[in-house]
Specification:
Elements lengths: L9 H13 L3 H23 L5 H15 L9 H19 L20 H18 L4 H12 L4 H7 L4 H19 L3 H16 L3
Helix pairs in contact: 1-2, 2-3, 2-4, 3-4, 5-9, 6-8, 7-8, 8-9
């Protein structure tokens, strides 16, 4: 019988790339950054709700990634490992900042593909109201909600990214949604989001 050659898995390739980065391979650094930059930017944007600090947050995320790559053992996909770094950076940013009014630029991408100007305007306004409510939430509730309801990740994936149980994550999402629902009773602009169309708005702009 001939030898059966096993093809490298994604985790094998991820670990190899990480090891090249740790060894100081500048091409590997660029490869990792360009492979993951867009996804990380999108995750940060949806969690924070604004591009105002995005360059700093993106830089901080990848600095943390490259500083800690030596601890990566390939137990998870590199994309998941990097996303954890992004979530920690965004969470710290959210936890330390004060609530502030949102300008319309914060949702400039969310409705970019809506066919009509009226729909774009409605989506921008709804998202602006949503993030105004999120600004007053507990950071853990906000993080769980934005990752699940706006970024479209499963509860189990959000739990993994936040180092929390699925039950705790589900509770945080539920409490955040309840807060939005309560505000929707006094804010007609939030009604469409709370009724289930929020994820459609959040997923656009990829």
């Amino acid at each position: 019988m001939g030898l059966r050659l096993s093809l490298p898995t994604q985790r094998d390739e991820d670990f190899g790339l990480a090891q090249r980065c740790v060894a100081g391979d500048r091409l590997a650094h660029r490869e990792l950054f360009h492979a993951h930059r867009r996804r990380v930017h999108t995750t940060l944007y949806r969690m924070v709700g604004s591009n105002a600090s995005m360059d700093d947050l993106l830089q901080e995320t990848f600095l943390n990634v490259f500083r800690s790559l030596g601890t990566y053992r390939g137990d998870a996909l590199l994309s998941t490992w990097i996303d954890r770094c992004a979530v920690r950076v965004a969470y710290a940013h959210i936890a330390q900042r004060k609530p502030r009014p949102h300008a319309l630029e914060l949702v400039s991408e969310i409705a970019a593909r809506d066919p009509s100007a009226e729909q774009r305007a409605m989506a921008r306004e709804a998202a602006r109201h949503v993030y105004a409510v999120l600004d007053g939430m507990d950071p853990k509730q906000r993080t769980a909600f934005t990752l699940h309801a706006i970024d479209g990740r499963s509860l189990s994936e959000v739990a993994e990214l936040m180092d929390a149980s699925v039950v705790a994550t589900q509770t945080r999402v539920w409490r955040a949604r309840r807060a939005l629902s309560e505000r929707a009773g006094k804010d007609s602009v939030l009604v469409e989001f709370v009724s289930g169309k929020g994820r459609r708005y959040g997923r656009q702009g990829d």
